[in-house]
Design the sequence.
């Protein structure tokens, strides 16, 4: 239901005037189920430029993964369908491509890393053959050459002894190594866009640090645009240039990472930050709770989807869906009627306990 | 291996007034011998773990997957039978109890599981799920009595569920509500100790906050002690009084929450804490990245188990296993260099 859309619903390009690599424009992806139509993605727009990392944040069911799967055209249809909008990659609308044309882009120009590396890899194929398969398909190399390239890819993602590992099966690798293989697989054809869907959620924090560092390094080296889908604001703060916050199928806020953490303007963004233990005002005491649950999508007839859980909500929020508005500058968008009042309050970040205690002096530590 | 009593000496300095005393807990798994007669390998899941827990206290066990934290938690309840070691609950040695006696003892010791979907019977109504422990420990009369219904209603309201929800099935609840059911079930026998095995890691951030607050409120009200097994350090920092860091089946550092997070001593603790991404784009992480994966507990490194990945390892670390010893008041570290 693309209600009133503010002209600034499209993010203006950053200072560089190059055209965006990927432009999601008023995308709506619905699922028709027995109990009604689920509007998983409801008029979402965002853009991605080369060399940029865009964070997409939200809780389960907010539509962040469905948006990404729409870009990959991996939505099962039926029950899914595209109810409107466009996804432009270098100006070409991906939603209009045939499956055959899409196959030339998927895994080649636009690739994706999934959360669970074990269920995303084929257990009965060596990892070398799995990587080579992609290369053979897209780059018309012979198997021997493709396998050599697979070894190079494993080296690129810093897997020790790539010549040996290339002939191993997924079960012989640890979780962190499997995620490296997933990254190697996604980067095998040197894509322009990499979508990382919760790439570190299933991993231990020490392994997460390795993978994040690897992704940052590879992006610097290869210059691709990265969409980082996550629920972890710590990962966002460390990796992303800009952030899109989603709630119940809509984009509710978008800003540069620094602005978002310094001056979040949507009540949901603020509540999300305040409910994180690491960002909580005091280490003692209670965490801020967001009361209730996300309303089921068929209950969302009109009004702001967050109104029922929002401490700022007024009568208008229940009647009218707030459009995206420019807050202060063109690069900060927020979908809330009361963003000015929200902005008057101190941001959770400013209240947060100083995180310096988590920083250690590693002087005297050999690396 | 080092002499048995060394560890006991250090640990015996702990205050005796605790609810739970775990000493030299070991859990070894033996993999089956191979077809060709090669003997099975011994996996040292938990090796020589000792700690104590006071009434109303939260002690967290943290570490990477496979470090033995969950095995330790379950061994305390003897849901996993420990290979050796002593577990004393209010001075009573649990290892000496028969299965039947142990069952009775578990009225005081409950557990909340990680996965709120797998730990609730899909064919039972919520009220029956929560009432089951009470019925198990009542001689006769398995039906719902009036006093039980009252107690159930009270339990439901305590964990923030509407009493009407008693007649629903587990699938009708969201993840957070299911975890509340799990908490109500654990609470139903007025336990003194609850082992919380990653109780919030399957939940969304906002729901996670609700469950953490609930656990803290219940502790305040009823003085329950939590043995909190978790890998999320931010959650641990919020909820714990003391924290034990485990690596490859051993405790490497054990101290109060504030000391651990502000002045960690063990190199592994320091690296683990620095690996947590900070939700502040202005803080540039000063981070020591740990290379590679933890070694296999079936074949742990000689000496200090961390020496293969430790940035400060010296010759002695390879040869001698450092003992967990007190550095300052109540701050236990197992490292040669600190």
Sequence:
């Amino acid at each position: 239901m693309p209600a009133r859309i503010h002209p600034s619903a499209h993010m203006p390009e950053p200072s560089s005037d190059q055209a965006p690599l990927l432009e999601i424009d008023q995308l709506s992806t619905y699922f028709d189920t027995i109990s009604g139509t689920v509007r998983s993605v409801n008029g979402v727009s965002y853009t991605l430029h080369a060399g940029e990392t865009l964070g997409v944040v939200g809780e389960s069911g907010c539509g962040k993964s469905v948006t990404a799967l729409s870009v990959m055209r991996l939505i099962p249809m039926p029950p899914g369908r595209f109810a409107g909008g466009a996804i432009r990659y270098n100006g070409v609308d991906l939603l209009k491509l045939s499956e055959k044309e899409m196959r030339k882009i998927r895994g080649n120009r636009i690739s994706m890393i999934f959360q669970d590396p074990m269920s995303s890899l084929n257990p009965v194929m060596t990892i070398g053959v799995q990587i080579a398969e992609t290369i053979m398909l897209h780059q018309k190399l012979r198997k021997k050459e493709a396998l050599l390239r697979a070894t190079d890819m494993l080296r690129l993602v810093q897997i020790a002894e790539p010549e040996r590992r290339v002939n191993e099966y997924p079960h012989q690798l640890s979780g962190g190594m499997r995620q490296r293989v997933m990254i190697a697989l996604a980067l095998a054809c040197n894509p322009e866009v990499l979508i990382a869907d919760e790439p570190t959620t299933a991993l231990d924090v020490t392994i997460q640090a390795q993978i994040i560092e690897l992704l940052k390094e590879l992006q610097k080296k290869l210059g691709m645009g990265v969409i980082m889908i996550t629920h972890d604001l710590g990962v966002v703060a460390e990796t992303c240039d800009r952030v899109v916050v989603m709630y119940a199928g809509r984009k509710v806020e978008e800003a540069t990472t620094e602005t978002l953490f310094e001056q979040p303007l949507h009540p949901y963004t603020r509540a999300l930050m305040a409910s994180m233990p690491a960002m909580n005002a005091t280490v003692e005491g209670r965490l801020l709770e967001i009361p209730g649950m996300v309303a089921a999508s068929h209950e969302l007839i009109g009004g702001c989807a967050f109104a029922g859980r929002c401490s700022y909500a007024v009568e208008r929020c229940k009647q009218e869906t707030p459009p995206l508005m420019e807050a202060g500058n063109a690069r900060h968008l927020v979908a809330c009627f009361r963003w000015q009042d929200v902005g008057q309050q101190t941001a959770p970040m400013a209240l947060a306990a100083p995180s310096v205690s988590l920083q250690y002096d590693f002087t005297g530590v050999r690396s | 291996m080092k002499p048995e009593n060394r560890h006991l000496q250090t640990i015996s300095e702990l205050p005796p007034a605790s609810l739970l005393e775990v000493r030299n807990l070991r859990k070894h798994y033996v993999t089956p011998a191979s077809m060709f007669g090669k003997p099975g390998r011994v996996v040292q899941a938990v090796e020589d773990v000792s700690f104590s827990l006071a009434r109303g206290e939260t002690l967290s066990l943290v570490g990477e997957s496979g470090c033995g934290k969950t095995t330790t938690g379950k061994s305390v309840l003897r849901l996993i039978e420990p290979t050796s070691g002593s577990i004393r609950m209010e001075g009573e040695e649990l290892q000496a109890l028969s299965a039947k006696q142990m069952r009775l003892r578990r009225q005081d010791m409950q557990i909340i599981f990680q996965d709120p979907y797998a730990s609730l019977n899909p064919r039972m109504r919520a009220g029956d799920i929560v009432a089951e422990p009470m019925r198990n420990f009542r001689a006769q009369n398995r039906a719902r009595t009036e006093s039980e219904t009252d107690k159930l209603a009270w339990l439901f309201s305590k964990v923030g569920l509407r009493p009407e929800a008693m007649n629903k099935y587990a699938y009708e609840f969201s993840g957070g509500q299911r975890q509340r059911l799990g908490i109500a079930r654990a609470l139903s026998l007025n336990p003194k100790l609850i082992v919380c095995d990653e109780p919030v890691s399957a939940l969304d951030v906002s729901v996670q906050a609700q469950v953490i607050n609930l656990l803290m409120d219940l502790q305040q009200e009823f003085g329950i002690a939590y043995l909190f097994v978790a890998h999320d350090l931010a959650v641990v920092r919020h909820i714990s009084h003391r924290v034990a860091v485990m690596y490859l089946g051993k405790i490497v550092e054990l101290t109060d929450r504030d000391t651990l997070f502000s002045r960690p001593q063990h190199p592994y603790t320091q690296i683990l804490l620095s690996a947590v991404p900070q939700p502040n784009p202005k803080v540039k992480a000063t981070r020591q990245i740990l290379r590679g994966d933890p070694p296999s507990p079936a074949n742990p490194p000689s000496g200090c188990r961390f020496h293969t990945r430790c940035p400060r390892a010296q010759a002695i670390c390879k040869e001698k296993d450092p003992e967990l010893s007190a550095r300052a008041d109540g701050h236990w570290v197992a490292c040669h260099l600190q």
Notes: Confidence is low (pLDDT under 50) at residues 1-15, 353-367 of chain A.
